[in-house]
Recover the amino acids of this structure.
């Protein structure tokens, strides 16, 4: 294994990101130089100001690539932009953004020197990867209190594997959570959900779960059910289970302030909410209106909040998604008062342009205001810490609350949990989805690019909102996106209120949708085995070609193909109206073309560049030499696939082996050797196309 | 030539988009069916409502492609989205948008049937090109008063050429306007501009013009100069000319309301501004604060406004850009009053979520409010027309005002003029830039894709803000974008206030920038010749491969390469960190690699697919068989290039000819045969790589 060195700067807050106890090294850390001084900097408008600079610097070589940073915009190679670890509720993931919902401060520099660095720091961290200067990395924390881990080892993969050991085993969901799920912000009642299930079942499009967004709750109160909309919720959960559907409710971070609401009253009584400077509960507003935020960085409060999930577990629920946990704040009570006062002082009829812009900024600056994040505190087991200093831990804390409680409440059973906001360490307690994306073709590609970056940081159970959350989806976009989603552990179609309905049956090519999603179920023996092995062995599930073929000059450049597990390379189409795409094979591979699981075409191809046609209704992937892909007949839901005869696709000239992982999908005896079945094929001579 | 049929529905407003008098056909128009009826439509949130439908329908075949629509988001093939012709000041050109700044209602369907349609309609028009139903075009006007032209001819190119004849000759700028220009919203005074010129000249990066954004004016008043910042403007214009720099000031649509300001007073006195229902001048607010809008759809008012440009022409100015002419309205006096009243009625301390969102919508809905566009009127030479019915003509009218005035004021001289907003017809009076884009890689590609769509609609003098207007540019983005910009008629680097400074000399690779932009100047004999011939002969300057190689199945699919003029195919790199890209050659071509004009490498390649490496500092293009590319040594500005020895790049096996167009660059005797020089090469045997 590789070598990990830990350096401590100042007095870091313990994030519990890592699980290995690494002794602190004395002396200077390698690779980076701390640069301090005064810089004359233009503000972009012909004004020059003196700026204090104080950052860690690394000089990149022209061929260096930089991998990692988990959930983020831009490429697999992160070079050429400045990122900020600052968990943000911002649904417009354009190229100009610097932060998404997670903070994943691990990166690997791969060039003449190959090393990894993990900055265990829960405040706002700026990572300039060749933005100010194309050839320099500049890392700037808000204050100088952090643990810095330097990792070295055998290539990028070796370093990533060391890191994954350092941070501990990734979360494993129940097997049903690998089935296809449908979600929409807008399903309001039993009947809405029945309509969805009926739409899928009648059109023979597989489905395993329906997600319940905020409307199932009574006035958006966590751990409540609106009884008008769901008169007998446990019975409805049962009704759905009889149709092999799991309901997955959302849980939001903020707890509504309402007299008589138990969660609120208990929280206040026990001091479990975040407090302002004066020691009074901090009041923000989210969906329920005014809320307090559970202090999930406090052990007692976290335990209390986690045990609240029992309310839904007891009604038959087996999965959850944690949302709004950056935490998103639409406004704070304090700031709204200030803004309203300012607005009311504006004279109506004579606003000049700068006044009108200031006015707009005031209103639009109500949400997720940095000043609000500086105005409340956590009680980190005795130590009062201002929120902005640990901002990036909030979603982690909330999901850890759930994860720890599930261990206590359901010790024998896996419960599905994934989160919007995250920090490294949270990957042990739950998955993440890639946040509120848009129905844009560019977000299909972004989805692909985030997969390996997230895997590097321990997040294996992940996926994007297929079809896109915001904006209007088109039928072709959804078909193409599903052809990538077939491979992502979380395979969920999710859309926002007010956008076009994008359940598969809303479009005309229902047969194509059924076949496409059927491929997910047919490939489940492979998908599940690869997931389990990646989690249990600390491996990448999705891997850039660069990591596996580091000496192949062209493979190093490929940013739109991925290796998926040990046998498969994927190369989805992500351009509208494209009939196909270019694909690079770094070694001979077998092209597998699936027109549904019932019609499989195979073709052996030599190393090199190809233009591959991929019709809208098909899934194409490539099998690596001497590798096997177990599959089965598809089904309409996971239970229908379970136990079906295993068949093998392969590209073996000699004898090849595959470790199939099979278990009941619920239990936690992951390491039981009985779960592994060795599959073997005797290959034959292969004719290259 | 092709066949053009005109059908008139209702009582169309005469937009003067076309210059040919086509008699109106009686009877039903071909291809489209008008579909009327009631449709049950879900609103996306489980509510179904009855919707009145009334649209023109065309059933597309699976292989049909749809070209055109000028300035717009998405692909060269417009299939798979819904567009709205509704000129909009919206700088976020994401995939989910439906309108940009122009309204270009010409499209060509290319499939089993090939035909063009031009919907001459100046109101809001919805063009659903396979959005609701992947296989149907649905065109919905706001009301049924339009001229519908159906075009048939020899292939897509034949149809486009017919259309270009129908709409008249494209605008021709002075030759210096093909030089490279630098712009930034933020240059405030003489000294700022001198700094820019010095930055370019000292670093040997060519430059021909500096653009003056709104700050040069006195309180943003059109046709004024701030004397504090420009104490002697004519002298400063001269000083710049001595350095071979043209200053290009901006003109905005709104005229500031200010006592004593001549333009305002004359406009009111003569009734030249748009009026509200009561006949009072309509008051909106833009940069100057409260303004009136000149009624540029009225012949008298248009003539008056156009002649105002004389104020700057008289001071030595030879070029302008017209902005904010959708027209953009930050708020209307009437609506602001209403909004402020509503805001002040809000109770401070108990806003629920829907109230806070309504509150935000109210404030953010102040700008470009559709209700405001319904609240003022034009006097179209005696007929009162509500603005929203002719909204898409405003930018056209403003630029026509300038264009017509230049003919009158400077009959012997070309004046540079381009606009943000436009409608077909305006292409005769000026160019357009592609609006307020962003420093995104995706906008580099969007820039490429818009070029042929705009050419189809008559807009030849065009280009995007190189490096991107909004958001922060990176050095590599600017280099790659310039490598495309080398070929676009308008080659301007422009950036917004508050974004990173992106003048080429702000980065480290100044030599590379100098060489890249030098290539523009070196290729000028070809670029200028091709522009002039395209304008004078009504041809495409940038052409999709599909138009030229309609029988090549793969060429039909290519959306990221273009033919530029008769000899060149371009294939720029538009992906960050990419070392090269795939290129398809539909026929044998010669690859030309320019490491600056001084170092030219050539390689003959056969038909087929290639992966071509393109370093950041190089420009690569391809020469078609039997074609010639004249070039010259580069210079630091256009006058330095003029008259230099012409050299030839070519890919000729036999004898090949090229028509070089040369003139003084200012005069208007375009058709003078002396401007054409026939160049000829005797080819030689070509060895393919």
């Amino acid at each position: 294994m590789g070598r990990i060195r830990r350096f401590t700067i100042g007095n870091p807050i313990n994030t519990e990101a890592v699980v290995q106890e690494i002794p602190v090294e004395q002396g200077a850390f390698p690779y980076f130089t701390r640069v301090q001084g005064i810089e004359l900097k233009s503000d972009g408008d012909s004004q020059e100001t003196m700026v204090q600079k104080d950052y860690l610097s690394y000089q990149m070589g022209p061929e260096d690539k930089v991998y990692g940073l988990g959930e983020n915009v831009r490429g697999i190679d992160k070079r050429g932009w400045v990122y900020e670890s600052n968990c943000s509720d911002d649904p417009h993931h354009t190229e100009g953004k610097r932060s998404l919902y997670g903070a994943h401060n691990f990166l690997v520099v791969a060039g003449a020197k190959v090393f990894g660095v993990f900055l265990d720091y829960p405040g706002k961290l700026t990572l300039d990867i060749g933005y100010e200067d194309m050839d320099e990395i500049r890392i700037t924390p808000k204050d100088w209190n952090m643990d810095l881990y330097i990792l070295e080892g055998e290539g990028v993969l070796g370093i990533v594997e060391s890191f994954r050991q350092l941070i501990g085993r990734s979360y494993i969901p129940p097997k049903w959570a690998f089935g296809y799920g449908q979600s929409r912000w807008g399903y309001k009642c039993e009947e809405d959900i029945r309509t969805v299930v009926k739409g899928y079942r009648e059109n023979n499009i597989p489905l395993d779960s329906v997600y319940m967004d905020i409307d199932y709750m009574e006035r958006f109160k966590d751990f409540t059910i609106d009884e008008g909309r769901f008169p007998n919720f446990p019975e409805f959960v049962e009704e759905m289970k009889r149709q092999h559907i799991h309901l997955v409710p959302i849980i939001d971070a903020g707890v509504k302030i309402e007299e008589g609401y138990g969660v609120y009253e208990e929280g206040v009584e026990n001091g479990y909410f975040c407090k302002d400077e004066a020691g009074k509960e901090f009041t923000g507003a989210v969906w329920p209106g005014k809320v307090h935020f559970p202090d999930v960085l406090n052990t007692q409060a976290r335990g209390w909040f986690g045990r609240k999930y029992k309310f839904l577990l007891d009604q038959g629920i087996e999965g959850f998604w944690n949302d709004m946990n950056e935490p998103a704040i639409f406004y704070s009570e304090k700031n709204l008062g200030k803004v309203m006062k300012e607005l009311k002082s504006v004279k109506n009829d004579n606003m000049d342009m700068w006044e009108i812009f200031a006015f707009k900024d005031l209103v639009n600056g109500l949400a997720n205001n940095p000043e609000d994040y500086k105005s409340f505190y956590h009680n980190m087991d005795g130590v009062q810490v201002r929120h902005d200093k640990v901002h990036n831990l909030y979603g982690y804390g909330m999901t850890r609350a759930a994860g720890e409680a599930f261990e206590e409440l359901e010790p024998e059973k896996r419960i599905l949990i994934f989160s919007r906001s995250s920090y490294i360490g949270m990957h042990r307690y739950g998955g993440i989805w890639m946040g509120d994306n848009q129905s844009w073709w560019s977000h299909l590609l972004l989805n692909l690019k985030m997969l390996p970056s997230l895997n590097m940081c321990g997040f294996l159970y992940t996926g994007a909102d297929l079809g896109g959350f915001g904006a209007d989806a088109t039928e072709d976009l959804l078909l193409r996106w599903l052809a990538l989603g077939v491979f992502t552990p979380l395979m969920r179609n999710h859309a926002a209120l007010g956008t076009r309905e994008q359940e598969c049956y809303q479009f005309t090519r229902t047969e194509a949708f059924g076949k496409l999603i059927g491929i997910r179920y047919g490939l489940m023996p492979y998908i599940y085995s690869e997931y389990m092995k990646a989690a249990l062995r600390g491996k990448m599930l999705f891997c850039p070609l660069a990591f596996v073929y580091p000496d192949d000059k062209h493979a190093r450049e490929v940013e739109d193909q991925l290796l998926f597990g040990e046998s498969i390379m994927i190369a989805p189409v992500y351009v509208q109206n494209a009939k196909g795409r270019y694909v690079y094979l770094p070694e001979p591979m077998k092209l597998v073309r699936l027109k549904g699981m019932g019609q499989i075409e195979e073709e052996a191809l030599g190393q090199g560049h190809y233009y591959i046609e991929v019709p809208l209704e098909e899934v194409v992937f490539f099998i690596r030499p001497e590798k096997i892909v177990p599959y089965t007949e598809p089904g309409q839901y996971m239970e229908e696939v379970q136990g079906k005869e295993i068949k093998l696709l392969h590209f073996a000239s000699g004898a090849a082996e595959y470790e199939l992982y099979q278990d009941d999908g619920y239990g936690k005896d992951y390491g039981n050797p009985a779960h592994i079945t060795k599959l073997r094929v005797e290959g034959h001579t292969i004719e290259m196309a």
